[in-house]
Design brief:
single chain, about 80 residues, mainly alpha, elongated
């Protein structure tokens, strides 16, 4: 498995877990607020993970893959939660 996938997959899984937890635990009126907070946390987590690797080669690619995947996951969650109301 490439370093890009190894460093992006945990961030994607956390975004997915946060979206599922939001769907189960949060009030339907506040889904969008919690999903935005999760996105902010995912961005910070992305930088923490990438800086912990301390490999400058491919930093931008790894960060963009992590954040783009998380945005897609949270966009799908927003669509699903929006339609379920």
């Amino acid at each position: 498995m490439s370093l890009l996938l190894k460093s992006a997959a945990p961030v994607w899984l956390l975004a997915l877990a946060g979206a599922i937890a939001t769907g189960i635990l949060a009030d339907p009126a506040s889904h969008l607020v919690f999903l935005a907070v999760i996105l902010g946390g995912v961005v910070i987590l992305t930088f923490v993970v990438q800086l912990a690797l301390s490999r400058p080669a491919g930093f931008v690619d790894r960060c963009s893959a992590s954040i783009t995947g998380s945005v897609v996951i949270l966009a799908v969650a927003t669509l699903v939660l929006g339609l379920s109301q």
